[in-house]
Amino acid sequence: MKAVILAGGFGTRISEETSVRPKPMVEIGGMPIIWHIMKTYAHYGIEEFIVLCGYKGHVIKDFFANYAMRSSSIEIDLSNGSLRLLDPTREPWKITLVDTGESTMTGGRLKRARSYLGDDTFLLTYGDGVSNVDINALIATHRADQSLVTLTAVQPPGRFGALTLGDTQTRVTQFLEKPEGDGAWINGGYFAIEPAAIDYIEGDDTSWEQQPLAGIAQQGKLSAYKHPGFWQPMDTLRDKQYLEALWSAGDAPWKLWP
Predict the structure, then answer these.
(1) Number of domains, the chain
(2) Per-position b or e across 169-181, b if 16+ CB within 10 A of its CB
(3) Of 28, 92, 155, 188, which one has the fewest beta carbons inside 10 Å?
(4) Average pLDDT of span 122-144
(5) Is 163 among the domain residues?
(6) In a domain, 139, yes or no
């Protein structure tokens, strides 16, 4: 099964990092967040990836083209220009990097990649967030429901501190720095998809999260796999720092691999 990763957005809300590289290349623990996402998929045996590039896509291409050299010791013989990898680190991954246009919307990017997807169920996610979602359970839900699309539903924590006020409305009776969310389930961005769902995408200006998913839902062909565990997008510098702190502390819930 193939996993498709949307990696072409501008990442304007974390411009401190994305002025020089696309958001999927922002590093957590010294490795791009897209690498973390791929390692999570690989934990479930998903080792074929299609990366949909756009803004500064050459940075992603350069990283994977030079992956073995970047992660290995090397021996260079200047007399003949030869280079030898001494202890190459290899991932058993096949990666297809597709140029999908700098300004193309998410649905349009997916539609442009149709010829690379084949006729089987595939997975889709965004290249800017991590989770410990159970990919096997997502696929099982998708197959059991026989839907065109199954999304992962998550309940994000509140972003702001919450206060409970007493009868006087000035006395604080409870303070929660990171309260639970309001109980609503939202799209967590890990999908299992049948290729026929791409027919709902009109073109480059189509956002996957709007008309296509709305149309599929109206026809009763959209399912949800509820994931109660860890899920964290990296939309802002604060999010990046939070993920970095979890990794540095050895407490990264998305690190499912050894």
Answers:
(1) 1
(2) eeeeeeeeeebee
(3) 92
(4) 97
(5) no
(6) yes
Q: Which of 52-66, 160-174, 202-216, 244-258 has the lowest mean pLDDT?
A: 160-174
Give pLDDT, residue 159.
62
At residue 185, the pLDDT reads 86
CA-CA distances (angstroms) from residue 158 to 11, 174, 178? 22, 15, 6
Q: Which residues of 214-233 are buried (b: 16+ CB within 10 A; e: fewer)?
A: ebbbeeebbbbbebeeebbb
The total of other beta-carbon atoms located within 10 Å of residue 115's CB is: 7
Q: Which of these, 147, 55, 51, lies nearest to 95 by C-alpha position?
A: 51
Residue 257 lies in a domain: no
Q: Catalogue the E-assigned strands of the chain.
A: 2-7, 27-28, 31-32, 48-53, 74-77, 82-85, 94-99, 122-126, 129-131, 149-154, 162-165, 172-176, 186-193, 222-226, 231-233
CA-nearest of 192, 251, 247 to 33 is 247
Would 211 be classed as within a structural domain? Answer: yes
What are 170's two structure tokens? 């000035």
CATH code for position 121:
3.90.550.10
